[in-house]
Amino acid sequence: MMFRAAVEHAKKHPGLIPQFFFICLGMGGASLYLIRLARGPHVTWDKTNNPEPWNKLDPTYQYKFVAITTDYKNLKKEGPDF
Questions:
Q1: Residues 48 and 63 both lie in one domain
Q2: Within this chain, do residues 34 and 48 fall inside the same structural domain, yes or no?
Q3: Tens digits of per-residue pLDDT, 17-73?
Q4: CA angle, 61 then 41 then 78, to 5°
Q5: What are the transmembrane regions (predicted)?
Q6: How far, in Å, are 13, 35, 77 from residue 55 at the CA level?
């Protein structure tokens, strides 16, 4: 029903088509980013099997979205094994 109303408004006012496009694009991008955050290494969904998943990460694992100055291939582990 809402989709039909949006299509009718777009037919009456063609200037709304780019606005609908960019709103849908922004909502889709935000949804994908939230899914990416929820699947990250610092989020614990199952505390019984793996209560601390961040301890099992390799030092070369790039967990940041964008790493400009850090080269993760050459990093070594600093600290004890838990």
A1: yes
A2: no
A3: 899 899 999 999 999 999 988 887 777 777 787 777 777 776 666 666 667 777 767
A4: 50
A5: 16-35
A6: 55, 22, 11
Total domains in the chain come to 2
- 24: closest CA among 10, 45, 12, 40? 10
Domain co-membership, 16 together with 47: no
Higher pLDDT pick, 53 / 8: 8
Same domain, 31 and 64: no
Reference 60, options 72, 47, 45; nearest CA is 72
CB 55 within 8 A of CB 82: yes
CB 59 within 8 A of CB 77: yes
Range of the domain at 72: 43-81
pLDDT at site 18: 92
